[in-house]
Structure formats: structure tokens, C-alpha cells
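Record format v2
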Amino acid sequence: MEEIIGIKGLKKSFGRLSVLKNISCSFEEGRVVSILGPNASGKTTLIKSVLGMVIPDEGDILFKGAPVTGTYNYKRHIGYMPQIGRYPDNMKIGQLFRMVMDIRQEDTALDTDLLKEYKLESMYNKTMRTLSGGTLQKVSAALAFMFNPDVLILDEPSAGLDPFAAEALKEKIMHEKHRGKLILITSHILSEADEISDNIMYLIEGQIKFYKSLHQLKDETGEQKLGRALTKIIV
Amino acid sequence: MFKIAKYIILDIVRSKVLIAYTVLLLAISLTIFMADGDVTKGLVSITTVIMIIVPLVSVVYSTTYYFNAAEFTELLVSQPISRKNILMGKFIGIGSSVLFAFVAGVCIPVSIFAFSATGITLMVSGCLLTLSFVSLAFFTSTRTRDKARGIGLALMLWFYFAILFDGLVLLFLYSFADYPLEKAMIALTALNPIDLARILILLQLDISALMGYTGALYQQFFGSGSGIIFSLILQIIWIGAPLLLALKAFKKKDL
């Protein structure tokens, strides 16, 4: 398996609060990695560092072997679904999609699976301001998958989605995984992580408590469910 | 960069705040010109009003828009665009929208009713003033995290330049009254974009005789060709410098 994202000695603090303390790990293609951990353990900060939204204090982030801090071209290969997607109030759904297409200007064929699945095309004329939280999540998800990126970064993807939409997203994630893509997910819903992930990374207070395959984790603890396995290790 | 600007302009055009601002400026200019036959007096009145309103609206509107679009900025940062292009796109988008309001609300009536050297000075300095306060708003917005603090800082900045600065200058004059301060006064003026614009406009009106010896000196300096160029360059610095500092801060900012 080829490494797509490598993180080396990443440190980040906000003021006196040190959020990431020397994180090193690597993510390979064709995997679904769930980043778990309690609130304020640094999950979102880690994701945002990879995306270049948070500038690390120390350490390197490598994308396909090349350090990326301060550059932006690698983001072409990343699809990001934020925790809470918020877009310009007066913009319509259709305009948003057209705008991102216009800004990215890529020739690759667009992936409109989720767009169709969520029936967003029939809502192209709705303004962002009038959308419910769940619909916004659908828009964010569709946008993340749209440009066929090699890496998908999903920050709490199923929060706010209805069960059918969450199921569709899950299927899409599995489908993309089999096409050799790397999918990073932060989540609080263990049953979901149990269902889709290959690897589990557990963060506590900005440090990696463990980073193992789901299989190994279950074997070591002798448990069948991720939730139980986690409680056995953590407590 | 221009694409981002384009989408920001499209977004701003759909909101009503800027239209209200345009209408307000238009109403002020038109009533002043209609009420008084004397065009010169009209220009002085307009100068007085816009030196207060234009910086205030420019700085507060830009700050508000900057923070309201914070999530949009996040979306852009996660796309393959450099941070420099994002911020410049925002500046061009917001700046040209506020500038458009000024052009429609002040420049057009002035060119119809009072097209003269003074009128042109008023239009040019007003435009530069607008941009410098948009730029100052970017400077403060990139350095603060939350909206309330950002708008507070923007208001303080306006208060300082529009009101407090003159008080400080008076205090300075009063404390050092025994020394020759004329040159120092010119240097002090450079520290405030509003004063630069105001002096430039007033000096075109030949009423500087009323301002005593300093006024005469101002006339001699700012009235001359090189003085005008000097103040124009300073006004452009007041646009460029805060924007550069904002860019520096934005490149290192965590979103």
C-alpha cells in the first residue's frame, strides 16, 4: 500500500493550550481511517492541519512524499466535508456547485452520485439561508466527493444526516475505498466507525493513544464490538 | 482572485445593506445640491458629511462582511487556491462594491452639479478614502478571531481617525505652542487618511485663507503640484500598507 499522507512530529498550540503534541503517523491508499477521541482531543485540528487551514507550529505534513505546508496545489486531490458547512447566505445551491467548479477548473469527470442520491439537483434554486442543517450536510458531502479526489476528509459526516442519507454516504464511502482512495473520518458514533473503518486512530489530549487496524484491535481485546474493545483499552 | 471577487460581488449585490448605503449617499448629495444654489457651499457640506459617513460605513461593512463570510473563507482555503488570492479576491470584491456605492451616491451627483477641480478632488479623495478604510478593516479583521471584537476594533479605528485624532493634534499644538510647528503639522496630517482627504479638498476651495498661518502653509504645500502628488501617494500607502499587513497575518492565520 502506498502512503498518501504522512505526518511527522506535528505540534500545534493555540496560545498556551497545546492541542497537538508531536503527532507522527501515515495514511495509506485504499483505507478508511477513523479518527476517534473525546471532545477537544485534537481531531479537528489534525484534519485542519492536513488541509492547510491550521498552520502547524512544528513538524511536516507530506502529501505523496512532498511537504505541503504553505502550498496549495495538493488540495486539488482532497475533498473536504466540514463539521458544519456554511456557505454564502444569498447563494443558491446550483450557484455554489458552479462556483466551486469554476474555481477548481478541473477537467476530470464530475462525480455526481451523491448529487443524484440526495436529489440536490431539484433544489438548485434554493438559497443557502433557507436550507436545514441536514440539507447543508448533504450539500457538503456532495461537494466533497464531486471532483473525484484521491483523499476524502470527512469531519463528523453523519451528524445531522437522516438515516437514509447517512446510509447512502456510507455506501459511497465503501465504494470509493474500493477504488483505492484514502478516506479519513472523525466521528463520535462508534457503531458506524465499526462498520466502515479499516484502521482506528485514537487521540487523547493531542497524542496518539493507539493507531491500529480494527481487526488487530478486536483480536487483542477479544471483543467483537469496537465500543467494547475501546472501553477495555481506555478504561 | 478575480473569480472570488466576482462571486463576492454577486453575493453583496443581492443583499440590501449596500443598496441602502448608496441611497443614503445619493439622498445626502442631492438634498445638499438642491437646497443650496451655491455649488461651492454644497461641496463643503458634502465633504463634512462624507468625511464622517464614508469611513464609518466602509470600515464597519467590510468587517461585518469579512466575519460573516468566515465559513466561506474556510471553504475556499480547503480548495486549491493560495491564501493570497483568497484575501486579495475578498478585498477586490468588497472594495469594489463599497466603491461602487460611493461612485453612484456621490461621484455621479457631484459630476452633474459641480464638475470642477474641487469636485474632482472630492471624488478622487473620497474613493481613496473608501478603499483605505476597507483596507484598514481587513487589517483588523485578520488580527481578531471573533466578530464582536473585530467590529469593536473597527469602530475604535473610525473613532480614532474621525474624532480623536483631531483632538490629539489640538493637544499637541497647545502643548508645543511656543515652537514652530508648521512642518510638523504637515507630517501629522500624513498620519490620518481622513485629514489628508479633507485638507486636499478644502484647499481647492480657496477658503484656506480663513485658516490662518498654518492654512497658508498648507496651501503652499498641499496646493502645489508636488503637494497633491505627495498626498495622493500617502493615501495610496494608506490603502496598500494595511492590506499588506493583513495579507501577512492571513497567511499565518488558523481558520
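The first helix of chain B runs from residue 2 to 14.
The CA atoms of residues 40 and 205 of chain B lie 7 Å apart.
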